[in-house]
Amino acid sequence: MVIWLASPLGVGKAADPMLPLKPLTAALKEADAWVEFNNQWLLYSTPWDIAMEENKKLRYLCLVGMDVDMMIRCIGRVDFPTLKEFQTKVVELTRKAKRMRITTPAGTDVSFENDPSRPILLEVGYADTPGPHFMSGQIGWSPIFETINGVIVFDGSLSPPIGLLKEPVKLHVKEGKIVKIEGGKEAIEFEAWLKSFDDPNMFYMAHVCYGFHPNAKLTGAILEDERVWGCTEWGIGNVGPMLAPPKGRPAKSHTDGICLNSSVWLDDVQLLDKGKVVHPELIELAKKLGKA
To answer: In terms of residue numbers, what domain contains 35?
Structure first.
């Protein structure tokens, strides 16, 4: 069954007022599998929340913004066994790290601590078990929110509300909250967008991710942008229980920003250097994926 909807003006719960909530929720509660292709995603919307909570057989695959070119590059031409092995090793290393630091040439310098009880989502592209699944090439988790401190500079894309960035957007973060936004016109637009929800939780960091897809490129489609090899991605606003159990932290919407060419330290051990894998346990696998 194909469900056609008029594109809502927002994403997440900001889409709720423009969705046929009752019939859409009823359909999703009975589905066995759901692949989402639309650009204004239903991920984190109320129908999505209810379907994930009540339909224990539902397999959800998020492919928002997918087109033919992306499907060929990011699904059809991928060494999935090697990528899965690589990502699994990254998860193992990250799970052991208590404290992390991320920097970028654009000016990011942020540190945080991890909660070992929180899940780390390993996205390898297989939607073979019930629950939410995403395209391969990404690893995400929610740090201990109040330990996130420093500067985060988005220099790839920021969606919503902008897409590809023409100039960096700098966030000053204290104890997990954005306290200052700097930059040009796009930074002003982004701050106005956050304020438009009249929701304090829209100014809190939600999750951090690695981008490790060997064929992803920066296009303005967030599904692909957040998987660009060697980037880190920060989610802001709504975060669900799959990342921050038991109840997450609700907000009226959600946005994701990309930090290119990231350097990452796990405690005192470096994982990435300006987007290049330098950890000795990962170098050979990266070479097999063409990312030496």
So the answer is: 12-64
Q: pLDDT tens, 186-234?
A: 999 999 999 999 999 999 999 999 999 999 999 999 999 999 999 999 9
82-to-49, 87, 122, 264, 270 alpha-carbon distances in Å: 33, 9, 14, 22, 22
Q: Give pTM, 2 decimals.
A: 0.92
Distances in whole angstroms, Cα of residue 51 to Cα of each of 46, 74, 119, 235: 9, 27, 20, 22
Tell whether 228 is covered by a domain: yes
Q: Does residue 100 contact residue 265 with C-beta atoms inside 8 Å?
A: yes
How many domains does the structure of the chain reveal? Answer: 2
157 and 129 in a common domain: yes
Using alpha carbons, select from 171, 161, 229 the residue that is nearest to residue 203: 171
Do the Cβ atoms of 74 and 145 come closer than 8 Å?
Answer: no
d(CA 88, CA 217): 22
DSSP string of 94-119, one letter each residue = HHH-SEEEEE-TTS-EEEEE--TTS-
Q: CA-to-CA distance for 112 and 235, rounded, in angstroms?
A: 15
CB 230 within 8 A of CB 162: no
How would you class 82 by CB atoms within 10 Å of its CB: exposed for 0-12, middle for 13-18, buried for 19 or more?
middle
3-state secondary structure of 91: helix
Average pLDDT over residues 120-136: 93
* 60 and 84, same domain (yes or no): no
| Tokens coding 150 | 């420093």
Q: Are 208 and 140 in contact (CB under 8 A)?
A: yes
Q: 87 in helix, strand or coil?
A: helix
